Amino acid sequence: MTTFQIAANILFIGFVYYFIAQNSARQLQSSTQTKMHSRHHYYGFFAAFMAWLPAYALLIVMAIGDDIVFRSLSTNLIPDAVRTNADFNEIIAHAQIKNVVSGTNFGTQPDWVYDAAQAWQGWIATSTTLTTILCLSLAVLGGFWGYYKINPNFRSRNAVERIIVALLAASSVIAILTTVGIIFSVVFESLRFFALVPVSEFLFGITWNPQFEGAERAGSGQMGLSTYGSVPLFAGTMLISAVALTVAVPVGLFSAIYLSEYASDRVRGVVKPLMELLAGVPTVVYGFFAALTVAPFIRSMGLTLGLDVASESALAAGLVMGIMIIPFISSLSDDVIRAVPQALREAAYALGSTQNETIRQVVLPAALPGVVASVLLAVSRAVGETMIVVMAAGLAANLSLNPLDAVTTVTAQIVTILVGDQEFESAKTLSAFALALTLIVMTLVLNFIALHVVNKYREQYD
Q1: Are 413 and 433 in contact (CB under 8 A)?
Q2: Which CATH superfamily is domain 231-461 in?
Q3: How much is the pLDDT for 140?
Q4: Model confidence pLDDT, tens digit, residues 137-171
Q5: Are 367 and 263 in contact, with CB atoms under 8 Å apart?
Q6: Prediction pTM value
Q7: Cβ distance 321 to 294 under 8 Å?
Q8: Are the C-beta atoms of residues 230 and 207 closer than 8 Å to each other?
Q9: 319: CB partners within 8 A, 6+ apart
């Protein structure tokens, strides 16, 4: 069986035990005329959880661990003459073996690669059989134990609630560990980059040219512009994001005010879903729209006015990006504004305020924390956008605050650097991690600022 088939069978076994345990608890109560501690479905859920959780845990361990074990075993099959070669790379060797195992091999490989791949396939067959037997047996035995626990005094509801709480806590831990893992992986690779390029050159240099190999040194001490200066990238990111927010914030906020305070329920029911459709459009479609429609239009308008407009400009990318993030502001702001207690509006009307004055002086200040949160979400979406920038703004790392010029962003450069086969020992490749780390720090700073604003005004209206 494949991993998916094993998981589906475990799911089926759990459901079977759910219905069996539920009916058994109902029959036990009817036959003994004894009140059960919990409702019948809690006994079913307990039996199902006992069938699911141990079996799925074992399946995950086997799915992750067998590849590690097979990789270690295959290393022993690599001839000593190959491993002692100066050009030997263990990652490439394992990739060659895996390609033969998966059937995606192109060209002719050495004999030892085919021998290792054949052994690997045998290990996979053995592991699949063993995993199937162990996981399905564990599901059956676990479900039977849950069924065996059924009796009037068994607190199945408490047990099920403890299991659910444990699952929720485990999910939180996984989310935290994932975040920590991402940060540490970026930090470690960034430290390798800063061992080759001084931090001052990266943070304050105004020339970005990762193709120049002369930057691969520590403490160059050379005067002049650094070829790994990130200032043009972050300037381009901020420029395009500023253009996008200039479009999205007013349009999104005003549309949210109209939909929540002025529009009828019928109009709101039609307009809001249509606006939210913008969030579902793939970014590559926005990129095509920016490159084929908006950018040529802006260039032709600029030529008409006597302005020098680049064929790929920050203005074109920012305008389309602003259209893309309008739903993030309008939808969230609309929900926040509608959540403002009606008592605040009625109190303002009782004091003689008009509807416009009530919205401006009461509703919006009360909804400000939520509005700031929606704008922050839009900022994060704009800063992290890549496809529109690549297609409409170009890849030129120009240090310019003119929206009519061609600029690039941090995310676009990260994609450009990591495309294709790259050597992870070079400063060019490692610079992508340094850019990512700096971008993470900038996002955290924005989060802290927004959190400060939210807390300050939330206390005023609690």
Answers
A1: no
A2: MetI-like (1.10.3720.10)
A3: 92
A4: 999 999 899 888 888 888 888 888 999 999 999 98
A5: no
A6: 0.70
A7: no
A8: no
A9: 243, 244, 247, 290, 294, 298
How far apart (Å, rounded) are the C-alpha atoms in residues 309 and 288? 19
Q: Count of alpha carbons within 13 Å of 295, Cβ hemisphere only?
A: 24
**Average pLDDT of the chain, as a whole number:** 82
Q: What is the mean pLDDT of residues 300-320?
A: 84
Tallying the residues shown for the chain, one arrives at: 462
Half-sphere exposure of 140 (CA within 13 A, CB side): 8
Q: How far apart are CA 221 and CA 208, in angstroms?
A: 18
Helix, strand or coil, per DSSP, at residue 399: coil
| Alpha-carbon distances, residue 95 vs 92, 102, 254 (angstroms) | 5, 10, 54
State the Cα–Cα distance between residues 245 and 376, nearest whole angstrom: 10
The pLDDT tens digits of the residues spanning 56-76 come to: 999 998 888 887 888 888 777
pLDDT at 76 (0 to 100): 77
Cα 53 from Cα 58, distance rounded (Å): 9
Q: Compute the Cα dihedral for 146, 150, 154, 160 and give only its sign.
A: positive
pLDDT tens-digit readout, 77-124: 777 777 777 666 677 777 777 777 777 766 677 777 787 888 888 888
In this structure, how many other beta carbons lie within 10 angstroms of the beta carbon of residue 200? 11
Q: In the chain, what are the domain boundaries?
A: 3-154, 231-461
